[in-house]
Fold these 2 entries.
Entry 1:
Amino acid sequence: MSETDTSGLMPSAAAYEEAKWSRVLAQQAVAFSAFAAVLVLTRLWTSFTSTKFLRRRHKNQVDTFLALTDIVCSTASMFIFVAQSIIREYQVGITAVEVLLSSFYAVAFVRRLWVKNFDFAIAFTFSTFFDVYAVSVISYQVFSPEPTWLTPTFMRSISVLIRYEEVMKMGFWASYAGEVKQRLGLSILRFACVTFFYACVGFCLEILGDIDLEVDGNGAIVGISERSPNYDTTLLTQLYFVVVTLSTVGYGDITPATTLHKVFAIVMIVSGVAFFSSEVAAIVALKDEIDSGRGKYRRSRFRNAHIIILGGAVTSGSATLQIFLEELLHPSRPNSSLPDVVLMSEEAPGTGLRRVLTSALGQAHVKFIRGSPMDQADLARADAANADMAFVLGNLSVRDHLTEAEDEDTILRASLLQRQLPGLPVRLLLLRSWAKEMARTAGINPLSCLTSGVLNHCRTALAVRCPGLPVLLTTMYSKLAGDWSQLPNSMMPWVREYFTSMRHDVYGAQIGAAFDGMPFLEAAAKIYEEHDVNLLAVQSAPENGGRLCPAGMIGGHLHVLSEGDVVMCLGQDVKRVLRAVGSSSKHPEAWRARFHAVRTAAARMGIRREVFVAAPGGASTHG
């Protein structure tokens, strides 16, 4: 460089001898020869062995772990090069760490070849090249009598990019960020790694200087020497030069000092400007693709299921879909059990559907695909072949004269989906009970169909087992009956209060010490007044069967609460419920252990729970 700053670390005389072209070129010759040997061996192996083991293989958790570990190790190798650029002397301790890291690289690339039966196509990749390169360079450092501190371990920055993209394709980041955020993170990482790579190459070219070939009288090359090395440069200076140059600011205060660096700077400017321009264009195109539904779904590595939802409820984005997703993706469920949800519609997202997609649930768990169940390409973008289930939801908010057309459309979508993917379980939500016969005619199992009136029999059965529960369920279910957003303004206040109350859900919890010895109704009034949480039921003791008793009535008597009693509450969220009952445990699932322990104790005592026996005269009583 042409700057006059000489505050950088001055290398010793031994370090001058280590940073020579002869040693660096020998190092590179070993690395490229090793990679060529790997290619030859795998090419021979592929030619003389069967490829029957080369079936499609889905990456598993071991692949994810190795990729993440590779990112960490490669980052460590990058920091080692930064340390070497500061120390500028060969250190045995640093080499020992490099040997440890190279051992992992060797295991990683051998495993990658082994699982693909040492296929030549796998060997001839950048992943294998950078692994073999790192192992060979470090081996040269260990066994060569002329090691050098100028070891290009910064090449692992490209491996970080490769591994990050692998992890992203595995769906690892899908549990933490949306597709646009993942792509933006990839672009930032690319900018950092490519900038670091360019800066490190420039640093090496400045330290080594230009090459002078020594020839004898016959024109044969007898040696290599260095001309005009710039030992005053630093890695930070080179990083500054790269950023200023690629950002097109170009202050001109720093310029390459060697001919080789000037040539490299030309390549860097052309490739760098094109690279960063393409990254910006790719992010904009991805955002437009996702907004229009033309993207592609990638399954998350840490989700247990993947379901597809389509139908009139999806197209309209009605309250039916929103409430279905709220229940399916309820926060009380463990994150690992929440499924990936793919919404599919032939039409572009309307206002209602955009509201669903931009909600907290939509951004975290939902992907929209614009397509038709008749199109194989659209189903492939939704990864329908690997889906665990499909739901075809009719829009319960349609006008009465449109219910028949809505059911017909729902049945048609389900029929098309079953013909394309016969093994995919499909469930339908229909508006009219007699539409099941239409579904049967279309070849759909009526047991896979649910109608708005099918819950009546279930509510009747529940009335026998738990008095009062059907009223609660009917009230909660009635919010599916329609969208009241079009009502006159005079009616909106009570509608808002109604929907607010319907946002509450049932949670389990254990009573805290503050309510020990307090009657159930007194505790229920206090909890509702202070926390807006309804106390619904309490679990009886083992000698009473361990049942859930509504309103705290056990054996005709009002129950007196004790610390640790399991209660069921209706509240806005689990944190508020735990705070309301004064639970000593803040874990939302802690009550389950006590609940099942009481049930088990009741079973051991021989007390049957909720068993009905025939009484004289044909009546039924609790046993």
Note: The longest strand covers residues 221-227.
Entry 2:
Amino acid sequence: SKALSEQGRKKSLQIQTWTMNPLDWDKRYAKKGFAYGKEANKFLVEASAYFPSCSKVFSHGEGEGRNGVYLAQLGHEVVGIEQSPVGIAKARRYAKECGVKLKLKREDLKTYVPKPASYEVVISVFCQFGKPHRDEIYQRCKDCLSEGGLFALEAYSQAQPQLGTGGPSEYERLYSSEILERIFHGFEILISREVIRDLHEGNYHRGKAAVVQFLARKPVLGRGRENLNILKDSSQNPNYVRSIDELFAERNTESQTMDVSLGQREGLDCEDWMLATAPLCLRHSVLASENFNRCRYCWLPIRSCFCSRTEQLRSPIRKFHFVLLCHPQEFLRSTSSGKLVSQVLGGEMLVYGCKAHEERLKQLLLESNLLVLYPTKSSISAESLKFSSTASTSRCEDVPQITVLVPDGTWRQTRALLNVCLEIQPSLQCVKLDEDTISQHVSPLIDAVHPGFGMGRICTFEACMMFLSVFEDELPNQLRGKNRASELLTPMVENLKAERSMPVIPFVERKENSTSLDVRLLDGYSSKLREISSSAVYKPGTVFCCICESTVSTCTRMKEHIQGKKHCLEVAKLCLKFNDASDSDCSTFPEPTEETFGKYSTDIMNLSLVAQEPPDVSLEKLKESK
């Protein structure tokens, strides 16, 4: 507050000013242990979810390496500036122990000038300056960022002296949101807040502290603009953007507005009880998505957002209008291709359980020219639909645009959605795809999610593209071609693969044994790990294991996977591969503990943000309340 800041200013004037010099930092860093701990700064961890994958990061005052090592473990290239040679040596040792690389330079930030447009991210954690150096340093920060680059900072605010728990003694070296917003005028402000929080960073950052947290993005000029809200800022599909925004606007819906859906539960339980609690399910999913820093439009972590790439792929079709009907457990799932039906094909998206979408769904179900893309015993083939359409055209009849409703989710979920639609309109006509064509298809998306299982399977977007291929003569050139569906999926598949790759393993003991592992002894060690795996702790909503590169269907299945033979065998290999022992003999290796299992298993899994899916977090919360 302003009052607290003013009190802090007055108190700072009563304190004798004293500024740390390089020798002072040498003495601090020469002490045993880590002055500010080994854990990365909490705000930096939050902000890192916005960083693009494999960014080049410029770190102010890297110190003993805690923040740089964390970012390097996420796959970023870190260049750190530090005045203290003792701190640099310590940071290099720590990085080596953790198996990552840091590029560290002994420089004074007051005079150091980085190359223009050479970094994607600049971070500054409790590295504070007074005038005139502050404005000069941050101007150089703005210059060294490439277009769309991010600046992330946490620093003591002007209210800190009143708390008396450390920080700069000179008031001019304390910050405020107003100061930072002025300095970074013209940037897109993503986070700008002043808070009082508990610090637990080593021996020197402890207790309640008044801080300012700031994250801003450098504007992108001209073409090729990449922005989190690219869809919202462009004219590519306002219907899709509106549908998503309407749903996010309902996240604070009170429980009594869900009575209608809850009242249907008795009839829906036999099909899919999730439909009966759809509004609550969506609310939990949206909140989880925001907590995970997911892009609300492409549903991947913001650092892997591919919305800007889909803008170039959009190809609306005159003959057909697609409407995706998304199951609440499919909405915001990173692996879902249904969003591309709207993003690329220009269709609508409706999510079951969203009050803003209910009337539109009812209206669609009463249209005479509506088809449902779903295989049933009474479904007509896409080929026969083409024949009837061609016949109408040959008679010069004015053929209206055909609306194609596409249920999205698992087979059980989509069947439940279809039955809900049939209750409103029993005479719905369904259309199916050719089974032989499906059997010969290889899905790159399914292969990325479940390696080796892409043959003979299709995702929702591929189903729509396969349907359109029957009418290829009437399609725009952008949608023609045998492999066009796979090409259009490429941005999503590439970014998804990058998020699902094995993170850099943050092991302190980074000694990799080159000798082969004895199968019998490996099995024995794996069996010991299985005995303690039942106590493993992992984030709720986890359905992807980056160690085994396995995706499971539900959170419950993940528990079974972690305790299974395959997973424990892979963990055993990691334990023995990166241990401190002189050889790989299991008999000489220490007995596994719960800490060992977590370190070589769930701790690694938790580094992957895609491992947690918002709808699965929602599912866990709903199960807890049942």
Note: The chain has 28 helices and 15 strands.
